[in-house]
Design goal:
The protein is mainly β and 329 residues long. It is built from no helices and 26 strands.
Length: 329
């Protein structure tokens, strides 16, 4: 089944100088209301009417093509019911959140069940468990693996929320044969204040791996860039007025990471705080690359779509049930 690109073209907003590239948002015709966008093995997948489709792009248009249903791995015993297992390529084979608990009643991710432990399955088959005390939970759905210090070993990034102090970003690493929390950002000071990671990578071009996060994406919307150095996390840049989550949603990936301006340094695309625009921002230096008006408010994850030439395109579902394709002319 193929569905052609509709003729609807939205207003293009320019960012930067008169020589800035033009980006535009277009609706792609879909067979039914779009409820989810996921990235599977590097490819965008769209759920419309309960069925999954892939997006085919060329210079002249786009189409949805029916695809097999997404396979969901069996969750290990004791895992967070709505969590995801993360697989790695270095020393961590798999990692997931476990030991569900209702001791923190925030419910920002759709229910009031959070995780009280992180399970790490090493490449050698040994299983490690990081358990939190009763004053905190992992208010997250999936751990993120990254080599933050360049030593060839995985660190694990996850959101930790204190019952009385709100959320912090935690880094977990192997130390003397045991995994433990080795660094945290300062908690957000009050209960029910949350943050959501937006991406991990070298966002400045300086060779250091950074962690981008959105602080309080529902009310504050500040994009922050943190660097782990000397066994601590240090904030080095911020950009205001952005979001990467809708309260109550399990879609944590409204932000997408790629090199959108072609300078060899990765950037971040994510909605404005009111979700009416998609902003493409850089930390090299901190600035907007483009700001694109959307036909309706952003409502799903954002997926990156590689192009045969030029910067990648982006796909995301909107609050009116349509699908938007964002790309540069």
């Amino acid at each position: 089944m193929r569905l052609a690109l509709s003729a609807s073209l939205m207003v293009v907003l320019m960012a930067g100088s008169a020589h800035a590239a033009e980006w535009r948002a277009q609706r792609i015709a879909t067979p039914a209301r779009v409820t989810a966008v996921e990235t599977v093995d590097g490819q965008a997948r769209v759920n419309a009417g309960g069925l999954w489709y892939r997006i085919e792009l060329n210079d002249n248009g786009a189409a949805l093509v029916f695809a097999d249903a997404l396979s969901k791995a069996d969750m290990p015993e004791g895992a967070l019911p709505d969590g995801r297992v993360t697989t790695g390529t270095r020393d961590v084979a798999r990692a997931w959140l476990g030991d569900p608990t209702d001791r923190y009643g925030h419910g920002v991710l759709g229910d009031r069940i959070e995780a009280s432990s992180l399970v790490i399955e090493a490449r050698d088959g040994k299983r490690h468990i990081v358990r939190l005390k009763n004053d905190a939970v992992f208010e997250d759905l999936e751990p993120r693996l990254a080599d933050l210090d360049g030593d060839g070993h995985d660190e694990i990034v996850v959101v930790k929320s204190y019952l009385k102090q709100g959320s912090a970003l935690a880094v977990i690493a192997l130390r003397q044969g045991r995994y433990d929390i080795v660094a945290e950002t300062t908690p957000l000071a009050s209960p029910n204040r949350w943050l959501n990671p937006a991406g991990i990578g070298d966002f400045t071009g300086g060779g250091k791996i950074g962690i981008a996060l959105v602080r309080q994406p529902h009310v504050i919307g500040e994009l922050e860039l943190w660097i782990w150095s000397d066994n601590r996390l240090r904030r080095i840049a911020t950009l205001p007025g952005l979001t990467n989550h809708i309260i109550g949603s399990r879609a944590l990936h409204m932000a997408a990471v790629a090199d959108f301006d072609g300078n060899g340094v990765i950037d971040i695309a994510l909605p404005s705080l009111d979700r009416g625009r998609l902003r493409i921002v850089s930390f090299a230096p901190a600035r907007d690359i483009a700001e694109i008006a959307l036909p309706s408010k952003a409502a799903t994850n954002t997926a990156v779509i590689a192009m045969t030439s030029g910067p990648p395109a982006l796909a995301l579902g909107l609050s009116d049930g349509s699908l938007a394709l964002v790309r540069r002319d």
